């Protein structure tokens, strides 16, 4: 399985990525081992999807980073976002 995930940092900013090992990748983000997220942690996992293969996960990641994808996520996570302020 491959995963598409969304992390949220302390400033409420989102990072979207994909991986074959979600737990390991999440740990890398929070331990400063990712060059894109090493400066603004800690992160919480706010959303993920499982995909059958890497190509599907990357396509979904690309979509979630688009304008329509961001709107989809905000709508999908509306209740969560209101709880986290």
Attribute tags:
single chain; GIY-YIG endonuclease; three-stranded antiparallel β-sheet; 4 helices; 44% helix
What does it look like?
With 85 residues, this protein is of the alpha+beta class. It contains 4 helices and 3 strands; from the N terminus they run ββαβααα. A 3-stranded antiparallel sheet has the order 2-1-3. It has one domain: GIY-YIG endonuclease (3-Layer(aba) Sandwich), CATH 3.40.1440. A hairpin with a 5-residue loop joins strand 1 and strand 2 (14-19). The mean pLDDT is 91.
Outline of this structure?
By secondary structure, the chain is an alpha+beta fold. It is built from 4 helices and 3 strands. Strands 2-1-3 form a 3-stranded antiparallel β-sheet.
């Amino acid at each position: 399985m491959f995963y598409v995930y969304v992390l949220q940092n302390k400033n409420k900013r989102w990072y979207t990525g994909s991986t074959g090992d979600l737990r390991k990748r999440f740990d890398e983000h929070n331990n400063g081992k990712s060059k894109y997220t090493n400066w603004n942690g800690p992160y919480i996992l706010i959303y993920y999807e499982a995909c059958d293969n890497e190509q599907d996960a990357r396509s979904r990641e690309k979509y979630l980073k688009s304008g329509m994808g961001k709107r989809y996520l905000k709508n999908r996570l509306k209740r969560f976002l209101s709880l986290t302020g």
